[in-house]
Amino acid sequence: MKKKMIWLAGLFIATSTYAQTDVTTGIMRGKDYGVTYLLPKTEIEIVVEATKHTYMPGEFCKYADRYLRMNNISADPDIYWTIDKLQTRVIGVPDKDNVYFVKLKDKTVAPLMELTEDGIVRSINMPLSGRTVPATKITATAQEIIDPRKFLTEEILMASSRAKMAELVAKEIYNIRESKNALLRGEADNMPQDGAQLKIMLDNLNLQERAMTEMFSGTLKEEPQTFTIRLTPKEMDNEVAFRFSKRLGVVASDDLAGEPYYISITDLKTPAIPEDDGKKKVDGVAYNVPGRAHITLTGNNKKLFDGELPITQFGTIEYLAPVLFNKNSTVKVLFDTATGGLIKVDRENN
């Protein structure tokens, strides 16, 4: 699509005369100074928060039912994935087919324009309108891995067989539980002097119990991961958005190792867009009037998303009249950087 260039006003320069912002259509020349900005187009973003579970059997897994009455303990390692949360939203990406140029020239009143890092128009006459400092990402630390053997007694370590060792470890677990109960009931021989000391003692006993119990139950490591799938919107009817495998996690839409998740997109024809007769004048600051789409996302025999989202490609482009930008008032405009649509327009008299 042919690039459209809009000649908007120049920077504000203190002079005795001010001209109305001049907006014309033309081709940018190398000698001209100005700001190039873009309107965004919409992409649908599906964010899948999943967890990878890695199970490793314990050393005494075969004796878990006999000594600790723990049923269904597997003796085989296993890796599987689960989906924890799924979000569907729209984001804006630069539309290289809708590039505009704001010419800066002397003796005119021009808007102060703020752009995103991608060059998408963010605001007019609203400096630092939406700029935020990225939040510090905090990564959850994995559960500490404890070597249970450092809690084992000499009698346990010198046991003549694995079965005997499992029996002695199980007895030690029961002894730890009895000690915890005695502390909680206030019946222990050496009771702690205060609540802080009691907490330290209970935490240490819990750590020992967990480490020894995992020798029977095994360990389960959980690693959360986030997958992002982006789709260019068009009318779709139950097309595969992505696939999910319990063994591999999120996989490509054409990878038959995963179960399909389907997306449907229906253009709601809102707003009603008149037919282009070729007479529409390109004059002013361009902005998008996004259309609306009904979107459903289904998978695993469930409807995971069912709602309406704004879609730029289903809408049209309009223009803020250049007469708005003059010396008599200051017009402040805030744009939605995801769709290029207007969020707010304010006027302040000078």
Overview of the structural elements:
- The protein is α+β, with helices and mostly antiparallel strands.
- It has a domain at 55-79 and 141-222.
- It is 16% helix and 41% strand.
- The strands form 4 sheets. A 5-stranded antiparallel sheet has the order 9-8-10-11-12, with no helix packed on it. A 4-stranded antiparallel sheet has the order 5-6-13-14, with no helix packed on it. A 3-stranded antiparallel sheet has the order 4-3-7.
- A hairpin with a 3-residue loop joins strand 8 (236-245) and strand 9.
- Helix 3 (162-185) packs antiparallel against helix 4.
- Residues 1-29 and 133-142 have low confidence and may be disordered.
Name its key features.
4-stranded antiparallel beta sheet, 5-stranded antiparallel beta sheet, disordered N terminus, alpha+beta, 350 residues
Q: What is the topological layout?
A:
Elements: E1 6-7, E2 24-25, E3 34-56, H1 64-68, E4 78-103, E5 113-115, E6 121-124, H2 154-157, H3 162-185, H4 195-217, E7 219-231, E8 236-245, E9 249-251, E10 259-267, E11 285-299, E12 302-320, E13 329-335, E14 342-349
Antiparallel strand pairs: 1-2, 3-4, 3-7, 5-6, 6-13, 8-9, 8-10, 10-11, 11-12, 13-14
Protein name: DUF4831 domain-containing protein
InterPro entries: DUF4831
Keywords: Signal
Structural class: alpha+beta
Strand order of the largest sheet: 9-8-10-11-12
**Major beta-sheet overview:** 5 strands, antiparallel
Radius of gyration: 33 Å
The general outline is elongated
Supply the number of helical segments. Answer: 4
Uncertain residue segments: 1-29, 133-142
Tell me the strand percentage band: 35-45%
SSE order = EEEHEEEHHHEEEEEEEE
Q: Average pLDDT value?
A: 82
Which bin fits the share of residues in helices? 10-25%
